[in-house]
Specification:
Elements (H helix, E strand, L loop, with lengths): L1 E3 L7 E3 L10 H9 L2 H9 L8 H7 L20 E2 L2 E2 L3 H4 L7 H16 L2 H5 L2 H28 L6 H17 L23
Antiparallel strand pairs: 1-2, 3-4
Helix pairs in contact: 5-7
The structure holds flavin-adenine dinucleotide.
Length: about 200
Amino acid sequence: MAVPIDKEGQTVAWGITADTKERDREGWKEYEVSGQAAREAKGLFADVDSEPIRSVLDNAIESEARVWPHHSIGDIPTWHKGRICLLGDAAHAMPPNGQGTALAFEDAAYLTRLLTSTEAVNKGYDRLFTQFETARRARVADIVKSAKPSSTIKSRVSPWIWYLKKWAFWAFFWWHGREVRMGHDQSYDVMKESIEVL
Ligand SMILES: Cc1cc2nc3c(=O)[nH]c(=O)nc-3n(C[C@H](O)[C@H](O)[C@H](O)COP(=O)(O)OP(=O)(O)OC[C@H]3O[C@@H](n4cnc5c(N)ncnc54)[C@H](O)[C@@H]3O)c2cc1C
């Protein structure tokens, strides 16, 4: 992934998904600040001459690399207790593939609707949060299911598989007339969620 982060496109943020050994908290920090993470990342692409990848890697400042070890958390038995309710990553951490922020916003929007409804609040926080959790767990499970393949697709593969993937993507877009429509619609309308607390 490479994204220009200034108007002129001169500064580029880049990132890769890679495998490395597990470390403790200090170990991960050291891996980051010592520049080892960036050196390893550069090493993985040492044989790549294509631009702009080559220039991005050659100009990368090693000590400025950031590492996000990717851990999964299991299902937590409940998201709420008393007047406290978890939402976003605290309730359902996602792999860093593009859905975590959206889900956190959805959670916030729905919880806001519930908490600003006097009728819903009058039913008590326990019932209100239970309603929130039940609705959101179903939504999160649906998204998590589709997030796993999109994580695997970004991993480094052998040159042959890469070559096949490259042409498979090309063929896919050609076949679909350069447009992609999700087979499974994942759009979300918070106004369709019920705020009638049972
Ligand atoms: C490398 C990476 C790439 C990602 N890419 C994407 C992407 O492209 N698209 C996408 O949708 N999602 C992406 N995600 C996931 C996304 O960042 C998270 O799902 C999202 O930020 C979750 O939002 P949140 O508000 O629940 O939690 P957070 O964003 O983690 O916010 C929690 C906040 O609480 C603060 N905090 C913690 N403890 C305390 C405390 N005791 N007191 C006060 N404050 C505290 C933290 O400092 C933090 O600011 C990515 C994640 C990573 C790591």
